[in-house]
Amino acid sequence: MSSLSQQPDTPCIGICSTAIGDDVCRGCARTFGEISFWGELSQAEKDHCWACLSIRKVWLAVVRPLHGHLEICPHDGSESARFTLRDGGELRLGQPYLDGERRLLPLRYGENELALEVSLDSWPQQLFAWLATPGGEMTDLY
């Protein structure tokens, strides 16, 4: 890095959880493939990865209190995420968006959908309450 205004060569922050089996690093939010082949990626591929990191960090924060496995699902220049819970359930996470002052994250669990307001400090309680509703019952969340 030649000046303070440029981004670092890599998003790595030295806390790599892919070494313990995660597909998405809890430290930098890159996928195992992005980390493994970073030196071989084109600048456009690296730029795309950098652009995706802030959204991935939101997803990582939301699934952190749950037990399971996060996977990034690319879609024509965009991404979503799939989180497989230990009980086999699947939580789908979409792209966060703004609704006025509210920052919302679209979620889907089975047939249930929720726009989780991640701008509130109470979002974890909202998430757990939603996951425990009829039709979306889960066990062993903690």
From TrEMBL:
InterPro entries, per the entry: DUF1289
Protein name stated in the entry: DUF1289 domain-containing protein
A Pfam family: DUF1289
